[in-house]
Amino acid sequence: MFKQESNSSSKPAPERKEETPMCDVHEGEKINIYCVTHGVPTCSMCKVFGAHKDCEVEPISSIYQTKKTELSDGIAMMVGSNDRMQGIISQLEEACRAIEENGRRQKTLVCEKFDHLYSVLEEKKREMSQVVTAEQEEKADYIRSLTRKYKDHLEESCKTVEMGIQTMEESEMALFLQNTKPLLKKIADASSTAHLDKVERGYENMDHYSVVFNKEAKALRSINFIQDCVYGRPRPTSSPQQMNSSSGLVKSSAST
After folding, report:
1. Measured CA distances, 213 to 121, 130, 226, 227, 233 (Å)
2. Where are the stretches annotated Disordered (predicted)?
3. How many CB atoms lie within 10 A of CB 75?
């Protein structure tokens, strides 16, 4: 008896065959046609007697190939989009490093000049350094936040691509078509970056906070940063509201 059980347990498990989905309405009927009107697979009885009798239908094999091609194109588009997204993320990370470095450099230059007149300019130095630091932190925080958003979007896009690749491997046409419609919508949604802010070129620059000390001592108490324009707008003051108005951001259409 033990020998018989041992022999039976050593037999390879039978291969699992992919079963064609059955119609939920007509018992025993396989899903073998595709309703073009509603965009869903169905069975022949639904076309003859059921909910799809007045609909346009096609053989499931022809729709299978069309949708598979459409999904393949969508995956290729997503892969290209993800590559571009990674490039944007790299640029954002570099911009964040440049903002921090430029901010540190400009603060150093400001402090070196103030040291020569330290006794008179101590309070002014503190105020002007705060202006540089405020914009540095504002810009760096914004870039970090935007980088996180792009990384989150890229992660979701990669997950969608993986789902698409798994679906491409589905050999059963009806199952493939059942999964394709929501997946294609997800690909279309993930392809859009309209909700992500774009950073204006030169946003990372901090060299507008330059100083010169070529005026007489009587003008020292009115000293400020060199007056010019930033991105075509008046230079921001220490007011947070005014700094926000000249931050150099270009908002996406979704945010407006």
Report:
1. 11, 19, 10, 13, 24
2. 1-22, 234-256
3. 20
**Distance from C-alpha of 140 to C-alpha of 142, rounded to nearest angstrom:** 5
My answer on whether 128 and 158 are in the same domain is yes
Torsion angle of C-alpha atoms 52, 55, 59, 63, degrees rounded to 10: -110
Identify the domain containing residue 101 by its residue range: 65-196+204-247
> In this structure, is the dihedral angle defined by the CA atoms of residues 118, 121, 125 and 127, taken in order, positive or negative?
positive
pLDDT, tens digit (0-9, with 9 covering 90-100), for 13-42: 555 555 778 878 787 778 778 888 888 888
Q: Are residues 150 and 29 in the same domain?
A: no
29 and 135 part of one domain: no
Between CA 136 and CA 76 the distance in angstroms is 39
Looking at every residue in the chain, the average pLDDT score rounds to: 77
- Whole-model pTM: value is 0.44
Q: Within this chain, do residues 31 and 86 fall inside the same structural domain, yes or no?
A: no
Sign of CA dihedral 167, 168, 171, 177: positive
pLDDT of residue 45 exceeding 60: yes
Full DSSP string of 16-45: PPPPPPBPSSSTT-BEEEEETTTTEEEEHH
11: left (phi over 0), alpha (psi -120 to 50) or beta: beta
